[in-house]
Inverse folding.
């Protein structure tokens, strides 16, 4: 529920706006499930310094979206439980996704090509109402080769060896609805790749990280009708593959109207 939710893709909240086909099934009042096929709208490597040197197929141009080396989308699934009655507000879910593809040459990073890459993700989600005003929500996941599909640009493969990078990610937050007009949020997220998988990378400064942390505090004010305002503080800490350690603070003010 923080304002700057997008950048949480680098600190535990795996997400992305993806073209996908999803089939959902509500088994009963409490249990639901889905299967999905998803892929980043520009393929693996058409962003942020990862444009592929595409091998042209007969009759296809280099710019053809059907000539992308990453042709296999992710296959994913999720099964969840939503509480009712005395369990109202409780939610627990497990999810998984998998993709296999044959790596193509990339530029300008020149990741080793012609490798079979297996990318997967397994995770869990939890929402627990503690009191009528306070609740906890969070996610924990583990996977490898997680890139643009999960808002982790340039983090899926070792830039030196081409091997997929394994990582543990997660986030958690407490939401406190003080009254009708004020809500307060405190949270933390992390993205912690295995250091051994980052070893040997040719990444320069600020390209691939060993660990990324974020702590945030948010206050939301109901102004009038459907108009809201909020203030947020984020503290970020990053250790890069070059062992450079950086930290910083970000302050944001935002307003929005719910139509």
């Amino acid at each position: 529920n923080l304002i700057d939710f997008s950048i949480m893709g680098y600190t535990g909240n795996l997400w992305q706006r993806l073209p996908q086909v999803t089939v959902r099934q509500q088994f009963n009042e409490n249990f639901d499930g889905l299967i999905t096929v998803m892929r980043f709208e520009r393929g693996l490597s058409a962003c942020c310094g990862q444009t592929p040197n595409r091998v042209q197929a007969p009759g296809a141009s280099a710019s053809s979206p059907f000539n992308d080396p990453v042709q296999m989308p992710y296959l994913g699934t999720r099964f969840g439980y939503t509480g009712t009655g005395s369990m109202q507000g409780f939610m627990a879910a497990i999810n998984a996704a998998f993709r296999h593809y044959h790596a193509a040459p990339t530029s300008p990073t020149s990741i080793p090509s012609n490798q079979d890459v297996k990318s997967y993700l397994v995770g869990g989600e939890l929402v627990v109402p503690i009191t009528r005003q306070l609740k906890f929500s969070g996610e924990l996941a583990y996977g490898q080769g997680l890139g643009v599909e999960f808002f982790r640009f340039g983090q899926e493969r070792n830039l030196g060896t081409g091997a997929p990078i394994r990582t543990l990610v997660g986030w958690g937050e407490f939401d406190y609805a003080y009254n009708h007009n004020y809500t307060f949020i405190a949270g933390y997220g992390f993205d912690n790749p295995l250091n051994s998988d980052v070893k040997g990378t040719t990444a320069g400064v600020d390209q691939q990280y060993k660990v990324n942390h974020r702590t945030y505090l948010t206050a939301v004010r109901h102004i009038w009708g459907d108009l809201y305002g909020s203030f947020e503080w984020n503290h970020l800490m990053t250790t890069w593959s070059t062992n450079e350690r950086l930290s910083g603070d970000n302050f944001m003010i935002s307003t929005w109207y719910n139509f």
In short: The CA atoms of residues 94 and 124 lie 4 Å apart. The mean pLDDT is 84. The radius of gyration is 20 Å. Residues 195-198 form the longest helix (4 residues).
